[in-house]
Amino acid sequence: MKIRKGDTVSVLKGKDRGKQGRVERVIKSSNRVLVEGVNMITRHVKTNPGVRQGGRIQQEAAIHVSNVMIICSNCNTNSRVGLKTLEDGSKVRICRKCKEIIN
Q1: Quick check: 17 pLDDT over 90?
Q2: Which residues fall within 8 angstroms of residue 50, CB to CB, at 6 or more apart?
Q3: What is the mean pLDDT of residues 36-60?
Q4: Phi, psi angle pair for 71, to nearest 5°
Q5: pTM here?
Q6: How many other C-beta atoms can be found within 10 angstroms of the C-beta atom of residue 19?
Q7: Cα separation of 91 and 102, whole Å?
Q8: How far is CA 101 from CA 14, 35, 96, in A?
């Protein structure tokens, strides 16, 4: 999977199409990501005495990786991600549009 925690992504499909956010968590087993402030759902939480108050809370739900695209920090556009092997043998992610390394 070419998306990592901390990447800035844009949502391509769904009710939050066009929104941008930072990846908080990557779930490799199901190819999903949690994006900050995107795909919010309402959870009903039961009161637990001494620990937390009950009620409805808003939290992010996971989005499939195919529905988000990385935003390149160099060219500030949505771009596909490629892999490149450097001379020392390490692999890095590159932007397919501007060919710069994605941190």
Answers
A1: yes
A2: none
A3: 92
A4: -100, 120
A5: 0.83
A6: 15
A7: 11
A8: 29, 22, 10
